[in-house]
Amino acid sequence: MTVNNGNRVKATEAAPQRVIELAEHVGGQVVGDELLIITGAATLSDAGEGDVSFLANPKYEKEMRTSAASAIVVGEKVELQEDGRTYIVCKDPYYAFMQIVVKLHGHREHQAIGVSAKASVAETATIEEKVDIHDFVVISDKVHIGAGTVIYPSCVIGPGSRIGRDCVLYPNVTIYDGCTIGDRVTIHAGTVVGQDGFGYATHEGVHHKIPQIGGVVIEDDVEIGACCAIDRGTLGDTVIGRGSKFSNLIAIGHNTKIGPYSLLVAQVGIAGSVTVGHHCVFGGQAGVVGHITIGDGVQVGAQAGVINEIPAGSSVVGSPAMPLTQAKRSITIMKDLPEFRRKLRDLEKALRHLLKGS
Predict the structure, then answer these.
(1) What is the pTM of this model?
(2) How is domain 120-322 classified at the CATH fold level?
């Protein structure tokens, strides 16, 4: 085992900031008291004195008017009232608010502990500098852990896997053999990466397991939520593109490739051998059948059932999934179906009377 642990400097939580300092940090303009002191961040409904909040969705504008927040981050098109409140006006209020929250509160800190004596680290593993490995972690043969990575208790890293720099693996994450994790990847508790895909050859009524000899590649700057499952490839690799973000309870089938900067909300399931383009969004509980291609920039609504390929730039909803405009018409018709059924029965009854009288 090669270990080089240096001293890590912890990030400190930001001190209270003046509004003008926050505005300069996000490239915004102050309307109101530039010297107002901000000590925290909160939603419009929860904010109180000393808090900064934000308005990104116009439907919450009424709530903004009654919020107790000391300052509010708003977009350039919001009509401001002379109510004595302080505003930070910017192009993208949601992104600006994110930057402000980071400046005020920072991200979660990780205690620098080095390599725990209670961890099991193989002699053939390579651990770069400033790596923290907590109690009961298992690092298998020929694993490589990049500098600055934090691995929390009870994680298991399988043989031959590589984890990049500045990653965070929360408790009970399991990385099977031969997987590759890029830099600055966060994997939350209970997630499994690289388990066997669902591959069987059925012969004379018996299901015979197909060896899954591929791997999983998770590219840089990906975040995987809690209790997700990402199958290894049958022959090639399952790939999660750089910058993509997963919520909790996501299942990705073998050999599927998720394009860069895609967003998957909780309980999405994507079957094997699917190709997903870049900047796609999948709403909660959406399901995708195997062996299809989903184009760049596609938006899939919550609980949609995708059974056909989707061209780039499309928005689909429903099960089976259909284009948004078509789905809206279908949903409108569905609520009228009981009335249509009643009218049809009346027409059938009237027709029978006519036929009897003819």
Answers:
(1) 0.88
(2) UDP N-Acetylglucosamine Acyltransferase; domain 1 (2.160.10)
